[in-house]
Amino acid sequence: MKLGNLHWLPAVLLLGCFGCAQASGAKELRYGLTLVPTGIDPHVHASSELGIPLASVYDTLVFRDSAGAFVPGLAERWDVTPDGLQYTFHLRSGVRFHDGTAFNAAAVKINLDRILDPATKSQKARFMIDSVTAVTVLDDFTIRLELSEPFSPLLDSLSQVYLGMASPAALEQWGADYQFHQSGTGPFRFIEYAAGDHLTLERNPDYAWAPSTYRNKTAALDRIVFRFYADAATRAPALLSGEVDVMGEVLPGDAADLEKDASFSVYPVAVPGQPLQFFFNLNQDPTGDVRVRRALLAATDRVSMVRTVFGSYSPVAVGPLTQATWGAASVVPADAFDRAEADTLLEEAGWKDVNGDGIREKDGQPLRLTVVYPAWGMTPQTAELLEVQWMEIGAAVELVQAASFSALMEARAGGRYHLISMNLAGTDPDLLRSFYRSDGAYNWAGVANSDLDALLDQAVSTADTARRMDLYRQAQEIIARECLILPVRDYVNINVAHSRVNGLTYSPQGWFPVLIDVQMD
Predict the structure, then answer these.
(1) Are 278 and 488 in contact (CB under 8 A)?
(2) How far is CA 474 from CA 368, 378, 459, in A?
(3) Dmax of the chain from CA atoms?
């Protein structure tokens, strides 16, 4: 077998590793992670990657089932006032954190207060509940959340690992070092995190409060060891050698080859949230001109780009939300490629090749574009194809790669870019508010559109599902009309597992495996 750029691995190596794993009899799963996060405190950090292990460490107040319905978690039930300004949660009794601390309403308050405290510097969780103004303990197992305004995505926020319940004792004991000593109530206990090397979980023998979304009541695995494979070329070899049992974000070509091998199964999982996309910077010339933005979109053959980079596993993105996201609208045709239209728009905007050197100019300035992109998610290959395609319409492109999320944030803060790539996963379309509202935390396009602000504000405070969907459709139409982004492909996490792994499924959030249900042959 040959996988992409991989060569045959010695048969003795393959058989030896598999044989050792089977002979040991250990119920241990080895899982390959693909991004080394800058931090893994779910209340502080924003990476989707941290949720892959930590969704098994933490329980949340509510869970979301495969049909999208909210079901009880650490909260047995909840009440919402007609005006949507108060949520009262009635909590489970008899639940304990991994360190033995009792779970109760006081613990929930400590967690939510920590997330909302500006000193925590939460990158995601705080913005998921930013309308919560007060958290009040009514009795040992009842807690009330008061909101400044109706916030329809609240239950969705509370179902995500970023708002997982952590032991108050552990938070107090470890402070800023809590990420290395985490304690939740989930089916697996956090044992060790060696930054950049591995993360280890062990079965929680006391787990007795599994939500209905889990098939198993307790975990079948004794231990899970996560290791990092940031270099995509190392992922298939790790599977072949038996170094890992499951790997995420396998290269499409390697996944296609592995799928032909009976020893492996491919699990492509559509990820809700935002697609792989590039934000146009409206505060820099020439991308401040909508005609230039439309020209660049028309000059991009997204169909061939996606086919070349992602094979048959990913669909072309057709809007600011992936089609796996509730409320997503198809507002950017997949086949919008039209080089003649791009040329016409650039001519209308005053960009002409006056020297015959292949680069357009305007007022003596060449058409130069700086594109900032992250080093992960096959975005580098996508950016390189952008450079090639845009050269054909007379644009010179400078590619700037950010090696980490913090480096990407620094580049954004500098503002010296014309396009920048960034996305977040999420199951509720309120995700758009952080990116497209004028004061949004991730308003990397620099958009200031009062009509868009009003639509996003109305949508987040509207309880009626049909009305919310219509408001988000209108918002997405404005994003497309103003050409605020270049959408490339809907995210599909291509997971591959060895055949000895059984029962592997993924949560509605897309990235996170349901590890309590996994068994090993």
Answers:
(1) yes
(2) 33, 31, 10
(3) 77
Please list the alpha-helical segments (H only) found in 350-421.
Answer: 379-391, 405-414
Pinpoint the residues of the chain covered by CATH 3.40.190.10. 1-34+232-271+492-521, 47-228
DSSP conformational letter for 378: T
Mean pLDDT, contiguous 10-residue spans, the chain (521 residues) = 35 34 67 91 92 97 92 98 96 98 98 97 93 97 96 95 98 97 98 95 98 96 96 96 97 96 96 96 97 98 96 96 96 96 98 95 97 92 97 97 90 94 91 95 96 97 93 98 98 96 93 95 88
On whether the 47-228 domain is CATH 3.20.20.70, my answer is: no
From the list 481, 393, 458, 376, the residue with the least C-alpha distance to 152 is 458
**Tokens, residue 159:** 């179902």
CB-based contacts of 340, cutoff 8 Å, min separation 6: none
Between CA 204 and CA 187 the distance in angstroms is 5
Q: Is the Cβ–Cβ distance between 130 and 137 less than 8 Å?
A: no
Give the residue among 392, 238, 249 at the shortest CA–CA distance from 309: 249
CATH of the structural domain 1-34+232-271+492-521, one choice from 3.90.190.20, 3.40.190.10, 1.10.630.10, 2.40.110.10: 3.40.190.10
